[in-house]
Amino acid sequence: MVLAYSGGLDTTVAVKWLSEKFGAEVYTVTVDVGQEDDFSKIEERAYKAGAVQHFYIDAKREFAEEYIARAILMNGMYEGVYPLGTALARPLIAAKVVEVARRLGADAVAHGSTSKGNDQVRFDVTVKALAPDLKIIAPARIWGMTRAEEIEYAKRHGLPVGEEHKKYSIDDNLWSRSIEGGPLDDPLAEPPEDAFKWTVSPDKAPHAPTYLTIEFEKGLPVAVNGEKMSLASIISLLNHVGGANGVGRIDHIENRLVGFKSREVYEAPAAVILYHAHRDLEKMVLTPRELRFKHYVLDPQWADLVYQGLWVEPLRNALEKAAEEMERWVSGEVRVKLYKGSLWVVGRESPYGGYSKELADYSAGWYPSDEEARGFIEMWSLHSLTALRRRK
User: Fold this and answer.
1) How far apart are CA 198 and CA 206, in angstroms?
2) pLDDT in tens, 299-336
3) Listed residue (284, 283, 172, 272) closest to 212, CA to CA
4) pLDDT of 147
5) What share of the chain is helix, strand, coil (3-state, %, to 5)?
6) What are φ and ψ of residue 155, in 5° steps?
7) CB count, 10 Å around CB of 144?
8) What region holds the Arginosuccinate synthase-like N-terminal domain (predicted)?
9) How far is it, in rounded angstroms, from Cα 113 to Cα 148?
């Protein structure tokens, strides 16, 4: 069996449990998508737990260029708020686990998701699409142990499990940091400051604003303040600068795909900055019909599919193809202002922008004649006025 291994309690216990339950040789795979972990310690923990062989896969660049890039093009925010950090990473991790399983000739793959979370769907559906012949095992859905019982199991078997009593459940990658559990389970309580790591409290942010100019080509960011860099580097930079200004904190009630609402807290400075900058540039470039179709139809539908674990759904590709045709023209620069947790777009320009000062200027711009204006208003309102009169 090949196990997607995070190094946490569930997956460390799973190494031993799978070996005992199925008599299996367990291989572990840790996929680096930008999480702030000590991968050497994770590898050491895997072997101490009984893994036959451990694999470390650096997928940060692929995560940025093949997954996050699509989220930027599609303004990927589930329910308009969550930047899909965990949801984007899961199909990539599942794909890498399948690759290792194929290479080893494994019979099954396993993951640490519970029956209560969204990730089980994301893992299972992706594996079913890529390797329908492989058996999928989720120990935490089977063993029936509470967290306390897992800890006791680990101690009984001498498993190297650290941080058993963490205050929060954390999942982080290049795109976002999600924080759950503990005091956050009370939806009325303000998140304690110790829940945050990437962002400073807005009241402790600098007293002077920070300005950034982000350059886009065909919908994707390619430079910050005139310096060209890779997408992964841009994300890292914006996470740092945004976080230092208190930008990127998200707190909302989320509709999980498994049937209940949960209180979710995230840190995602780069995602928040790029989301606002990209949407603003789209407003500058796209026609009103293109804009409304993309923002109200394509984007939310795409975000729903990704959140719901349907990365393999053919409709996702179709939505992206439609968006890519529009994004051909979404190039230019957007200037943003960061100040004490707030973000404003304060300027934008594009060679393909539909804005015309000559048309918009009230002091000396173009004006239709009175006859033209009256004719336009008459025709424009005819449907509404006719219906109103008939219904009266």
Assistant:
1) 15
2) 999 999 999 999 999 999 999 999 999 999 999 999 99
3) 272
4) 86
5) 45, 20, 35
6) -65, -40
7) 7
8) 2-160
9) 17
Interatomic CA distance for residues 328 and 271, integer angstroms: 21
Whether the Cβ atoms of residue 338 and residue 244 lie closer than 8 Å to each other? no
Would strands 27-32 and 135-137 be described as parallel, antiparallel, or unpaired? unpaired
Q: Which residues are annotated as a binding site for L-aspartate?
A: 114, 118-119
Residue type, 84: L
Q: Which two tokens stand for residue 219?
A: 């919908």
Residues with a catalytic annotation lie at: 10, 90, 119, 169
d(CA 389, CA 166): 66
How many whole angstroms separate alpha carbon 151 and alpha carbon 126?
30
The closest of 22, 24, 28 to 8, measured between CA atoms, is 28
198's tokens: 């990437």
Q: What phi and psi, each to the nearest 5 degrees, are found at residue 188?
A: -90, -20
Query: Are 250 and 266 within 8 A, CB to CB?
Result: yes
pLDDT of 71: 98
Which of these, 362, 276, 355, 311, lies nearest to 130 by C-alpha position?
Answer: 311
Q: Locate the DSSP E strands across the chain.
A: 2-4, 27-32, 53-58, 108-110, 135-137, 169-172, 177-180, 210-217, 220-224, 227-228, 249-255, 261-267, 332-339, 342-349
CB-based contact 142:35 (threshold 8 Å):
no
Sign of CA pseudo-dihedral 16, 20, 22, 24? positive
Question: CA–CA distance from 203 to each of 62, 245, 334, 340, 346 (Å)?
Answer: 36, 9, 26, 6, 22
- pLDDT tens readout for residues 124-140: 999 999 999 999 999 99
Predicted TM-score of the model (pTM): 0.94
CA distance 372 to 275: 39
The yes-or-no verdict on residue 164 having pLDDT over 70 is: no
- In one letter, which amino acid is 1? M
Among candidates 61, 60, 50, which has minimal Cα distance to 3?
A: 50
CA–CA separation, 43 vs 337, rounded Å?
42
Instruction: Enter the DSSP assignment of 82.
Output: B
Average pLDDT over residues 367-384: 94
Amino acid at 319: L
